[in-house]
Amino acid sequence: MDLFNLQDKVAVVTGAAGVLCSSMAKELAARGAKVALLDLNEAKAKEFAAEINEAGGTAIGIGANVLDKDSLLAARDAVLQEFGRVDILINGAGGNKKEATADDTRSFFELPQDAMQWVFNLNFIGTVLPTQVFGECMVKQESGAVVNISSMAAFRPLTRTISYSTAKAAINNFTQWMAVHFNQNYSANIRVNAIAPGFFITEQNYYLMIDKETGEPTPRGEKVLEHTPMGRYGTPEDLIGTLIWLVSDASSFVNGAVIPVDGGFSAYSGV
Ligand SMILES: NC(=O)c1ccc[n+]([C@@H]2O[C@H](COP(=O)([O-])OP(=O)(O)OC[C@H]3O[C@@H](n4cnc5c(N)ncnc54)[C@H](O)[C@@H]3O)[C@@H](O)[C@H]2O)c1
């Protein structure tokens, strides 16, 4: 038996127009899964779905907002109509924004409530709502695998990013809570785990890591590299092995776990 087999599994990926999750969607499809790419950016989600279909995979792109339950319910209808079930949910939509980040121009005391709320909601509530909506399908089927996307900020908060750090810590807690809740109330065959990526250069953190005038790492970017024993940023491909493991039978007794994929960042004390 191929423990990693995903043939004909149906996967829903939120934030699938983004850097990390579009790569996840493509890799799931390359392994035979039928993939629904959900994103606020409908055009890009459809574009990536078309690329997957052209490459011989099976995918649909759907415009959906992870903070709007009606929008998720409409997406669920579309997924069920097209593919008939939901085996895998990747809660990838998330991110940070400058206005919710303390810096030389904006102290902690001046951080606007709406910006902090926006970041907290996107990361935390934007993980809970899709789990409610697509988790119901898993409960009916009595099987499923959910993978949440956490961050290094969840284990120990990163300086400056208050809402992002607290929301990702909440995702770790929710990952454990949900794993227990599914098993105790619905089915022992539904698992919930999380991946905590280290540092990957994408749109949402570019301003923190790279000086846009010079293209060189910012002092914060340099610190990240110094504290990553492997001495480099991650690439989207670095997440794939762990993802395939967590959504397949290869991890059949792994539940409520948060797996760092970080080049050793979380293992290093800095000394
Ligand atoms: N880049 C990193 O270093 C890093 C590290 C740790 C964790 N992460 C996490 O990985 C995940 C993916 O990040 P990424 O770097 O690929 O980011 P990204 O900005 O490239 O992608 C995020 C995607 O989410 C979508 N999105 C935003 N709000 C949405 C909403 N309300 N509903 C639906 N979709 C929405 C965006 O349109 C975008 O396509 C995020 O949860 C992020 O916090 C990233």
Task: Provide a descriptive summary of the structure in words.
With about 270 residues, this protein is an alpha/beta fold. The chain folds into two domains: about 10-200 and about 235-260, NAD(P)-binding Rossmann-like Domain (Rossmann fold, 3-Layer(aba) Sandwich), CATH 3.40.50.720; about 205-235, no CATH class. Helices cover about 45% and strands about 15% of the residues. The chain has nine helices and seven strands. It has helices spanning about 20-30, 40-55, 70-85, 115-140, 150-155, 160-185, 205-210, 220-225, 240-245, and strands at about 10-15, 35-40, 60-65, 90, 145-150, 190-195, 260. Strands 3-2-1-4-5-6-7 form a seven-stranded parallel sheet, with helices on both faces. Strand 4 (about 90), helix 4 and strand 5 (about 145-150) form a beta-alpha-beta unit. Helix 1 packs parallel to helix 2 (about 40-55). The longest helix is centred in the middle third of the chain and has 29 residues, at about 115-140. The relative contact order is 0.14. The mean pLDDT is about 95.
